Amino acid sequence: MGMVIVMGIVMAMATVMVMATATEMATGMETNSSAVRLVQSLSLLLIGASLLTACAATSSEVRSVRECPSLISYSAEIRERAADEIALLPEDSAIIRLLSDYTVMRDQTRACKGIAAKS
Fold it and tell me: What are the pLDDT digits (tens) for 18-73?
């Protein structure tokens, strides 16, 4: 929305600049009005700023589409095999802690996608 307002101001100032130049060309007289020169300078400044804004790497617009990570599905066979292997690990295993974190991440992904969490 802000960019639309800036572009409107730029267009208005550019119009004034073009009109002043056309007046100079039609009358053969140079316009020395400081107000016209100020508007021309501001027009050039705003045009430059709007061009630089167009080159911005990211969008300033709020995205309405939720971006969720993908969720990998595992077969029942793989899940059973993993459960058997986890049962062989000691309780204080670092792998069990990592898998606990992975479970939380999968629950967060389900929530992001609107899928009911598995218990």
Answer: 666 666 666 666 656 666 666 666 666 666 666 666 666 565 555 556 688 888 89
Cα diameter, the chain: 94
Q: 89 near 95, Cβ under 8 Å?
A: yes
How confident is the model at residue 116, as a pLDDT?
76
Exposure of 87 by Cβ count < 10 A (0-12 exposed, 13-18 middle, 19+ buried)? Answer: exposed
Q: How many residues does the chain have?
A: 119
Q: Could you count the other beta carbons within 10 Å of the beta carbon of residue 40?
A: 19
The CA distance from 112 to 67, in Å, is: 8
